[in-house]
Design a protein that fits this description.
The chain is mainly alpha-helical. About 80% of the residues lie in helices and about 0% in strands. It starts with a helix and ends with a helix.
């Protein structure tokens, strides 16, 4: 079984062991495109296993080889994994630089999905850095592609992200539109966990908008999913939002 197929199946430890075995046998030509790809595979597996320093070493070796090759798609993947490593390390400016380079490489080979996926990464970094206008721009551009390909998972996620940003910018009516679109996409996917998250967000937003009966409906629906699926994290969020709703109703005692 190939290393790449092991990675695709999520067998990261087994893939890493296979890579180390091939390295010890010295069957891969030094500074060949194949060696660059194996350094990338190793970096990918190490990121998934949380070994970021080791991953960065391998990713940089992959970049040094593949930047002079014709394997542009693999180079874009290397640039992306370097960005992901820096993001995990909290070095967000470096992450943004490498994600931007990756997007440029994907554009060079007209890989629209690759560009859209990188825009999603860039939006996340910009959000963390409170660069909200740039985050919105990246999300909007990525959504254009995901709508064309009817990728409901990404449509749901990005509408939810847009709604979150708009709440922070006090754009509550725009946020309501995007969170509703996210809820609808998650419902089409029968994704109970993300439906629950969407309902909680809409319940909180409805409370901010003083649409209290609507807030109550959303939160009750969320609680039903929480109870059915034992979502501990979402239960804590529910209690917080329900307390805010009780305060909005004027029920001081029940809000405690």
């Amino acid at each position: 079984q190939s290393v790449e197929s092991l990675l695709n199946e999520g067998n990261f430890q087994e893939a890493l062991a296979e890579i180390m075995d091939l390295e010890s046998q010295k069957v891969i030509d030094h500074f060949s495109d194949e060696e660059g790809e194996f350094y990338y595979f190793g970096a990918f597996a190490l990121v998934k296993l949380g070994q970021l320093s080791e991953a960065l070493v391998k990713a940089r070796k992959a970049y040094d080889i593949l930047r002079n090759s014709e394997k542009n798609r693999r180079l874009a993947q290397v640039q992306r994994i370097i960005g992901i490593i820096f993001a995990h390390l909290g070095e967000l400016k470096e992450a943004e630089i490498h994600f931007t380079d990756s997007a440029s490489t994907y554009r060079r080979i007209n890989d629209q999905k690759g560009v859209a996926d990188i825009y999603n990464e860039l939006a996340r970094v910009c959000f963390i850095r409170s660069k909200f206008p740039q985050a919105v721009e990246y999300i909007t551009d990525a959504l254009d592609y995901y709508r064309k390909t009817d990728d409901q998972v990404m449509i749901a996620r990005l509408h939810g992200n847009l709604g979150t940003i708009q709440i922070l910018k006090d754009q509550w009516h725009e946020a309501e539109t995007n969170l509703t679109l996210s809820l609808q996409a998650n419902q089409r996917l029968n994704d109970d966990h993300n439906v629950c998250k969407s309902l909680l967000s809409l319940g909180n937003l409805s409370c901010l908008l003083r649409k209290l009966p609507q807030a109550e409906t959303y939160l009750k629906s969320a609680l039903q999913l929480i109870t059915e699926n034992n979502y501990a994290h979402e239960l804590a969020i529910y209690h917080e939002y329900q307390g805010s709703l009780e305060l909005a109703w004027g029920n001081q005692d029940q809000a405690r």
